[in-house]
Amino acid sequence: MPQYAEIAIALPIDRTFHYSIPSHISGDIAVGKRVFVPFGPRTVVGYVISLCDAIDIKDPKSISSVIDKEPLLSSDMFKLAGWISDNYFCSLGEAIAAAIPGGIKKGKTSIGSRLKDKHEDIKEEIRSDPHTLMEEQSMALKAIEASMDKGEHKTFLLHGITASGKTEVYLQAIDIVLAKGRQAIMLVPEISLTPQTVERFVARFGAHVAVIHSALTDAKRFLEWKKIKEGKARIVVGARSAIFAPFENIGLIIVDEEHETSYKQDDVPRYHAREVAEERARLNNCPLILGSATPSLESYYKAKQGEYKLIRLTKRVEERSLPKVKIVDMRMELATRQRVTIFSKVLLDAVENTLKKHKQAIIFLNRRGFSTFVNCKQCGLVLKCKRCDAVMVYHFEKKALVCHYCGYTSSPPDICPKCRSGYIRYFGLGTEKVESEMSRIFVSARIVRMDSDTTGKAGSHDRILGEFKSGKVDLLVGTQMIAKGLDFPQVTLVGVVSADVSLNLPDFRASERTFNLLTQVAGRAGRGEDGGEVIVQTYTPHHYAILSAAKHDYDKFYDEEIVARKELLFPPFVNLIKMTLRARNEELTSKTAGDLAAAIKSEDKDAMVAGPAPATISRIRGYFRYNVILKGRDRLKLCALLKIVLAKFKKPHGVLIAVDVDPISM
Prior knowledge:
alpha/beta, Rossmann fold, 4 domains
């Protein structure tokens, strides 16, 4: 019997620990199980990663107890966790913990639940049948099947315009995988925003489907995880954490809408699910499909370089035409009308026509709230959050000013707190104002708003979308929540109130985000027999992101954007690591950030270091924030360099450092 165990602990410590195995638990211990171990003054959960007979440590502490009857983690999962630890700057224990369902992380073995699995009620007779594929879909499926037959890992970039039938290709590819006795993982950006995708999978595959996402309770998530672990489910549909589904025999992994930013984890380990999916597919020698109408520049670049196999779907299902896009120059509206207007005459006329024909419209603005800032006309003061360097947004329904970063709220003032004048005015607009104005102009229209203010309660997403789908609602006003994956045949008009919201952000991905959002939201129109129209209001009508989106021309956008990325040395030409330093004292934060940048340069004089510079929002919740950016062509080398630097770096008390590898925003 082995006498010692190597244990990983989910703490930010870049090493593992050895413990002795007491004789009374030696028969129970195994690699992949969790154990309780003493660590300093407390007892923590550890993960057994190896067993051995000899170690170099004198008097090691003993394992307290074994938690699991069966191993939770396979060797495959340990390899994946090791890869995440090396590539995303976290400890092995933190990477392993990402693969464990939240509810049992603290050492539980099960969670009591009165929930019944709603998918198990699905009867055979309501199953949907496969559709007949169009020629392009059929060619795509053949290429994927050939890769499955060879048992090789290959990444396919399925670049299909909106409504070109990508989901049907996924479904039929999974059919082939199941026939081979293997399992499939399907990642979608945010389940709450893609309920129709989940419905299609459940309708096709019934109780074989497990669904995993953040809106589930711990108990429900554990039930789904257990169902996968016990082999009752053979397909997992879920948001980014579903990539850790405990399958042993994966035959296919799919990442739908692969360009989506929600695939990037916000906290440790800050992995990107698309990259993890690629590594897991490689470990399982199976194909990976990345699907999108607007692929990320990184993926398209790899396809152009021959690293990925590019497959195009250029036609909409049933040969439906793409919606016509009109760009409205709001500078002209400003010149020809007496006052600043929210809606152009073109958009208002189009909404009126749509309502007359008893069709539906979507009005999109990627900013919530009523007024986006409150300003004094006398002294110029703009009201900001007292804890963040962020402008307070007025919310009409709450009759309050709200900080969208920390949630702080205050009452709107009648007089200016600085100069005591009464010249307080409300400027800018959000979805709440758009909804209010639309209700005022189209009195008899049934209007509903969908943003994070109206979807806070459980089930509110489904309720709003259900009402819209059933025709009880004429106009749906919303943020990017309504831009993705929704299929409503009665929608013949999409209006974009301001295309410039995401274009003016100080971020190297601003143009890409704008192009993606406009293309995706335009793709919600004309999915039925009646065709569709999209009206885009903008103050920058000649920007290539807006012009390319209007022509549904991804290649034109890519050709322009890739030149800028190359000149400025941004992804896909380099990898980035963003270090955000924060502290209560601004001077201390700035000085420490400068010292860190200097420490990296002294460790490697060729390192490309940018900064320090204040973060876009330089103060949040009372903490001042400075960024240092490290650039390089090899992610593993960058992480290794940073581990050496931070191990030696003596940061002052009170300064926190967060490391984000390949950040999605600066």
